[in-house]
C-alpha cells in the first residue's frame, strides 16, 4: 500500500504468504517485539504494526523485520505531506541552467536517485537469500544520493548571494524522506516519458486521421482495430489504445495545438534530465 509517499504494509498482510516455520525477529527501534516462527506471532501484534518499504533484512537463519506502530506511521505521513517535493524539484530546475557545473551536479543526483530507486522499488522481489547483499548495495546507493544532493546544494550555495538553499533546508536530513524524494524524481521522469509516448501517438493520429478512420471503420471491433494499429504502424499497446480512445474533437485545430503545446512543455522539462 502507498500512503502519501510512504510505502508500507500491515505486518499481518506482509506475512500472509510466508512459510509458517520461517524464523523471524520483529523489532522496533530499540527493542524486540517478537522472536520465533511466523505461525506463532500473536494476531494482535501482527495487526497493529506496519512494515516500511526496504527495511527487511536477513540475519543468519532469521529474517529481521523492523516495524513501526500505526500511530508513528500516521505521524510520518503528516510530516512528509508538509514537504512539497514538486516545489523542491521545480526550484532546482529553475536554478541549474545558470552554469554547467550545476547541470552536471543535477545529472549526477538524478543518476544516483535512479540507482537507489531500483533497490527501493524492487525490494520485495529479492529473495531472502540475497537480502543481505541487496541491503548493503541499497544503503550504498542511498548514501550516494544524499552525497549528490549535498554536492548540488553546496554548488548552489556558492552561487547564491544570500548563501541559503531553501529547498535543501526544507528537505531536511531524514533518510526516509530523502529516499522518498529520490523515488519522486524518478517517478516524475518516468511519467513524463510515458506521457510523451502517448502524446506522440495522438499527434500522429491527428496527422493521419484518414488512415485511423479506415482501420476503425473496417475492424471487427475495438480490439481488432488496436491490434491492426500496433502491427501496421509499430505502436505499443498503450499508444494504440490512446488512438482508439480518441474522439472526433481530438482532430480539431484547437486540439492539435493543445497536444503540440503540451509535448513542447514536457520536452522543455525533460531536457534537464540525463539518459538513464
**Overall radius of gyration:** 24 Å
Please tell me the total number of domains.
3
Sheet having the most strands: 7 strands, mixed
Order of secondary-structure elements:
EEHEEHEEEHHHHHHHHHH
Number of DSSP strand runs = 7
Helix content: 55-70%
What low-confidence regions span 5 or more consecutive residues with pLDDT below 50? Answer: 1-6
Could you tell me how far the N terminus lies from the C terminus, measured between alpha carbons in angstroms?
27 Å
Shape summary: flat
Portion in strands: 5-15%
Number of helices: 12
Q: Please, what is the average pLDDT?
A: 86
Q: Structural class from helices and strands?
A: alpha+beta
Provide structural commentary.
It is a single chain. The chain folds into three domains: 2-78, no CATH class; 84-173; 192-268, Topoisomerase, domain 3 (Orthogonal Bundle). The longest helix has 33 residues, at 175-207. Strands 1, 2, 3, 4, 5, 6 and 7 form a seven-stranded mixed sheet that branches. The chain is an alpha+beta fold and 276 residues long. Mean pLDDT is 86; it is low at 1-6. Helices cover 62% and strands 12% of the residues. The protein has helices spanning 11-14, 43-48, 70-81, 85-95, 100-122, 131-159, 166-171, 175-207, 209-218, 222-233, 237-244, 253-270, and strands at 2-3, 6-10, 23-27, 32-37, 49-52, 57-59, 62-69.
